[in-house]
Write a structure and sequence with these properties.
The protein contains six helices and 57 strands. By secondary structure, it is mainly β. The two termini are 42 Å apart.
C-alpha cells in the first residue's frame, strides 16, 4: 500500500512540476524575473518570480504562450511543446531603445517613441556596472551632463548650461529642490546613495508643465528600489563592498528584501568613508604647481594652530575626506486588485565636510582660513504613495503622494590667527502633496490625457552665532564669549509655498506621428522677516511676494520609417525666486551677496530638434539634438547698493555688496550628438559629444555655468560571464575671455595664473582613459575591477575647486544571499 501511495505522490509531483516553466537569459544563463507570460486573448497573465519560475497550470495545452520582458526579444510557443525544451525558455537580450518605457515625461509609463523630449536613462544594471562613488559621479557618466565639484563631498550637475536651483532633482516622485536651493553650485545630489537606485532618468530642457518651477535646464529623476510581493515567503539579501585607491574609499552596502503574499519590504543601509583625495601627477597642461596643496590647516574643533603646515605630498589634497551614511526603508502593500500603497522612508547624514574651496585659499602666502567646513548634511524623507486604477471614464489610473522632508545644513568658519568662530545653521521643513492622473480617450489608447496638481510648503529657520574660542596652548578648552553675527537667511523665519494645476495631452495622429501638448498654472508665495538690524537695514524688513506663471509645451514626433524618428519641441519654463535668491547673505572673494526684496521670476522659452536613426535591425542608435533657449528677466548676481552703500562689514571684513538681480535677455544654445549599440554578438559601443554656448543680449557677456566642449567614447566586449570596457573621456579648454567674471560663479581663480600677463589662463583641456571589468561567477556572485585615469593625468573639471582623482584602482564585490 505504501508503495502505491508513494508512486501516486511521485506522479502528482511530476505533474505539478510540469506546470512550471523557468526563464533564463541565453547569454548568462541567469534567471529573469518579472517576465510577463500571457495567452493570445491576454485574459491569463502570470509573471516569473526572482528565480525565473512561473506556474502555467491555468493555461490550456493548446494555448500559444508569449514570454515578454522589456529588455528581451519576445518569445512564443505552444504550451504542449514546452516539454520538448524541458520547460526552460531562453530569452535573448535586445539592444533597441525605441520602445523603451519612460517614466518621467508624463509622470507615468510612456513609450519612448511617443515622447518628443530628449531623455537619458541609466538602468539598474548600468548603475551597477559603473559602480559610482556618489550619485553625482553617476550623473557625470550620462550624456550631456557636466558635474562641478567645490569639495569632494558634493557634485553640482550642469544641464544645458544651467545648474543648482535651475535643475530640478526628484526622488521617487517627490521634488528635492527646496526654498534654500541656491544659485551657483549645489551639492545636494550626493544625499541619494547610488547603491539603492533602481533607475535614473534625465529630461533635458525646460519641463515646467509637468514639474513646475526650477525645471529649466532639466529634471533629474531618481527611482529607488521598490519591493515586490510573492506567492511564497522569500527573503533576499545583497551585500556590496567597494574600495578605491585615489581617496582610500571604503563603502559597504547591505539590503534585505522581504516578500510575502500580501505585503513586501525593502531595507537598505549604505556607509562610505572617504579619505583625502590624490590628484594626478601627469601635467600635460604644463602648469607644474597648479592645484597642488602646498600647505594646509590641521585645526579642528578642539585643536588650535595659528599657522598652516607644509604638506609633505602636495598631490594629496588635505582636508577633503568625509564619511556618509544612507538609510532606506520601503513597504509595499496591495490593498486590492486595483489599489496599492507604498511607504518610503529615507535618511542621509554625513560627517563634517571640509569646505576645500576656503581651506585652500591663500592670501599673501598664508592660509586665509583655519577652519571652514559644512556640518553634517542631514536629509530626512517620509512619503506615502497611493496608486489606484478605478477604470472610470474620466480616470483610468492615478497616484497620490504625500511627503515630508527635513533638511539641516550648517557652515562653520574661523580665519587663521583669529579666535572668532562663526556658526550658521539652516533648518528646512518641506510638506508636499502631488496628484497625477491619466485616462485614455479611446479604446485604442492612443489618445491619452493626463492631469494633476501639486502643493508644496517650505518653512525655513536660519540661526547664526559667533563664539570666541578659549585656547590653552594648542588646546581649545571652550568659549570665552558669544557675539552677534549676521544669519545667512532671514532670522525671523521665512516661508515659501507653491500651488499648481496641469494637464497634458498626447495623441497618435497616425501610425507615423504623435502630437503632445500641455499647460500648467503655478502660483508661488514667499514671506520673510528680518529682525536683527545690527549689520544692515532693508527698505522693508518684513516682505511678501506673490508670483503667478503659466507654462506650456508642444511636441511632435514623426517616424517616416521604422528606423527614423524626428522630434520637435517648443516649451516654456519659469523659476520663481526662492528664499536663497531673495534673502541670502553670503561672502566670497571680497564680495558679499545681500538681499534683493524686489526680485522677480525668470522665464525660459525653448525650441529644439532631435533626430534618431537606427541601424542593423534596431541594434544601433545614432541620435542628435539641437536647442535654443531664450532667457527673459534672467537672474544673475550683479553690483548692488543697500541703503545707498556699496560696501558692508561681514564677519569683520569690509566687502563689496552684490545681489541677485533681474537682467533683460540672454540665450543658451547647443546640442548633443550620441550613439549607442551593438557592433557584433560580443561588442558594444556608446559615446557622446556636447557643445554649449551662452551669452547675455543686454550686457554682451558670457553666461555662467557654460561648460566647454566635452564628451566620451566607450567600447565594451561581453563573453558570457565576463564584461570589459574601455572608456575615453575628453574636455576642451575654456579660455579666459569666455568666463563670466562679474558673477564669480565659474571660479576663474581656480584656473592657472599666468604671472607674465597678470591674468588667469582658464580651464586647460584634458582627457582620460579608463578600464572597467566585471566578472559574474553566478547569479549570486560578481566582482568588478576598474582602473580610472590610467595615465594619472592632472585636471580639474570646469568651475571646480578640487582637482579630479589621479590614477584610481577600484575593486568591488556583490553578493546575493
Amino acid at each position: 500500500m505504501r508503495f502505491y501511495v508513494g508512486l501516486l505522490f511521485f506522479i502528482f509531483s511530476l505533474a505539478a512540476q510540469s506546470q512550471q516553466v523557468k526563464v533564463l537569459d541565453r547569454e548568462s544563463n541567469f534567471p529573469i524575473n518579472n517576465v510577463t507570460i500571457y495567452n493570445d486573448s491576454r485574459d491569463l497573465v502570470v509573471y516569473t518570480d526572482k528565480k525565473g519560475i512561473a506556474d502555467l497550470s491555468a493555461f490550456k495545452e493548446s494555448d500559444v504562450i508569449s514570454f515578454n520582458h522589456l529588455a528581451c526579444y519576445e518569445f512564443e510557443i505552444l504550451k504542449r511543446e514546452l516539454g520538448v525544451i524541458d520547460f526552460v525558455v531562453y530569452l535573448i537580450n535586445r539592444a533597441e531603445q525605441l520602445d523603451e518605457v519612460v517614466l518621467s515625461a508624463s509622470r507615468g509609463k510612456e513609450s519612448r517613441s511617443r515622447v518628443a523630449e530628449t531623455i537619458a536613462i541609466a538602468s539598474k544594471e548600468e548603475i551597477r556596472r559603473m559602480a559610482p562613488q556618489t550619485s553625482a559621479d553617476l550623473l557625470a557618466n550620462l550624456p550631456g551632463i557636466k558635474v562641478q565639484k567645490t569639495q569632494m563631498g558634493g557634485g553640482s550637475p550642469v544641464i544645458r548650461g544651467m545648474e543648482a536651483n535651475r535643475v530640478l532633482l526628484v526622488i521617487d516622485g517627490v521634488r528635492m529642490n527646496n526654498a534654500i536651493y541656491r544659485t551657483g553650485h549645489l551639492q545636494n545630489s550626493i544625499t541619494v546613495s547610488p547603491t539603492v537606485l533602481e533607475r535614473t532618468e534625465i529630461i533635458y530642457g525646460p519641463s515646467s508643465v509637468i514639474y513646475g518651477s526650477d525645471a529649466l535646464g532639466g529634471v533629474i529623476n531618481y527611482f529607488t528600489k521598490t519591493p515586490e510581493i510573492n506567492a511564497e515567503n522569500t527573503f533576499e539579501t545583497s551585500i556590496f563592498s567597494r574600495y578605491s585607491s585615489a581617496n582610500n574609499e571604503k563603502t559597504i552596502h547591505l539590503d534585505v528584501e522581504a516578500s510575502f503574499k500580501k505585503w513586501a519590504a525593502f531595507t537598505a543601509v549604505s556607509h562610505s568613508d572617504f579619505g583625502d583625495l590624490k590628484m594626478g601627477k601627469t601635467r600635460n597642461h604644463g602648469f607644474e604647481d597648479w592645484g597642488k596643496v602646498i600647505q594646509y590647516s590641521n585645526n579642528t574643533n578642539s585643536f588650535y594652530n595659528p599657522i598652516g603646515l607644509v604638506n609633505p605630498n602636495p598631490n594629496v589634497q588635505k582636508n577633503t575626506g568625509y564619511n556618509q551614511l544612507d538609510l532606506l526603508q520601503k513597504f509595499y502593500v496591495p490593498l486590492g486588485k486595483k489599489t496599492d500603497i507604498s511607504l518610503n522612508i529615507q535618511y542621509s547624514t554625513s560627517s563634517d565636510i571640509p569646505n576645500f574651496d576656503n581651506l585652500a585659499e591663500v592670501a599673501n602666502g598664508k592660509l586665509r582660513y583655519a577652519e571652514a567646513y559644512y556640518g553634517p548634511q542631514n536629509r530626512f524623507l517620509a512619503s506615502s504613495s497611493l496608486h489606484f486604477n478605478p477604470d472610470f471614464s474620466w480616470l483610468e489610473k492615478g497616484t497620490l503622494i504625500f511627503a515630508f522632508q527635513q533638511i539641516e545644513e550648517s557652515r562653520i568658519e574661523r580665519r587663521m590667527n583669529s579666535l572668532d568662530r562663526f556658526y550658521r545653521t539652516e533648518n528646512v521643513d518641506v510638506y508636499s502633496l502631488n496628484g497625477d492622473f491619466s485616462v485614455p480617450l479611446n479604446k485604442a489608447k492612443n489618445r491619452n490625457l493626463s492631469y494633476g496638481f501639486e502643493f508644496t510648503h517650505n518653512n525655513v529657520n536660519s540661526n547664526a552665532i559667533g563664539k570666541t574660542i578659549a585656547v590653552n596652548g594648542n588646546e581649545i578648552t571652550g568659549f570665552a564669549n558669544d557675539f552677534v553675527i549676521q544669519s545667512r537667511y532671514p532670522d525671523g523665519g521665512s516661508d515659501y509655498s507653491s500651488t499648481a494645476l496641469y494637464t497634458n495631452y498626447r495623441q497618435n495622429l497616425n501610425s507615423k506621428s504623435t502630437l503632445s501638448t500641455g499647460i500648467r498654472f503655478t502660483a508661488t508665495f514667499l514671506k520673510a522677516l528680518w529682525v536683527d538690524d545690527t549689520f544692515m537695514t532693508l527698505p522693508d524688513m518684513d516682505i511678501y511676494t506673490d508670483n503667478k506663471a503659466v507654462s506650456a509645451t508642444l511636441g511632435y514626433v514623426y517616424k517616416p520609417t521604422v528606423n527614423w524618428q524626428i522630434n520637435t519641441l517648443v516649451s516654456s519654463g519659469f523659476r520663481s525666486p526662492n528664499i536663497d535668491d531673495i534673502g541670502k547673505i553670503r561672502h566670497k572673494n571680497g564680495k558679499v551677496t545681500v538681499p534683493n526684496i524686489y526680485l522677480k521670476p525668470e522665464n525660459v522659452y525653448n525650441a529644439e530638434l532631435g533626430l534618431l536613426r537606427y541601424f542593423n535591425n534596431k541594434k544601433f542608435l545614432v541620435s542628435a539634438n539641437a536647442y535654443y533657449m531664450l532667457l527673459h528677466h534672467y537672474i544673475a548676481r550683479g553690483d548692488f547698493e543697500i541703503n545707498g552703500q556699496n560696501t558692508l562689514v561681514y564677519d569683520g571684513v569690509t566687502a563689496t555688496t552684490m545681489a541677485n538681480i533681474n537682467n533683460k535677455n540672454a540665450y543658451i544654445a547647443g546640442g548633443t550628438f550620441s550613439f549607442l549599440g551593438t557592433l557584433s554578438n560580443h561588442f558594444k559601443t556608446n559615446g557622446s559629444i556636447t557643445y554649449t554656448q551662452g551669452k547675455s543680449y543686454d550686457k554682451k557677456l558670457p553666461l555662467s555655468s557654460i561648460p566647454p566642449l566635452f564628451g566620451n567614447l566607450e567600447v565594451s566586449c561581453h563573453f558570457k560571464k565576463l564584461q570589459t570596457s574601455l572608456n575615453y573621456r575628453f574636455n576642451a579648454a575654456k579660455r579666459f575671455k569666455d568666463y563670466n567674471l562679474e558673477e564669480g560663479i565659474d571660479n576663474i581663480e581656480q584656473t592657472p595664473f599666468i604671472a607674465e600677463t597678470d591674468s588667469y589662463y582658464g580651464t586647460p583641456k584634458w582627457s582620460t582613459l579608463n578600464l572597467n571589468t566585471n566578472y559574474q561567477f553566478s547569479d549570486k556572485v560578481s566582482v568588478s575591477f576598474r582602473l580610472d585615469n590610467i595615465f594619472d593625468v592632472h585636471y580639474k573639471e570646469f568651475a571646480s575647486s578640487i582637482s579630479a582623482p589621479g590614477r584610481n584602482y577600484v575593486g568591488s564585490l556583490l553578493l546575493k544571499l
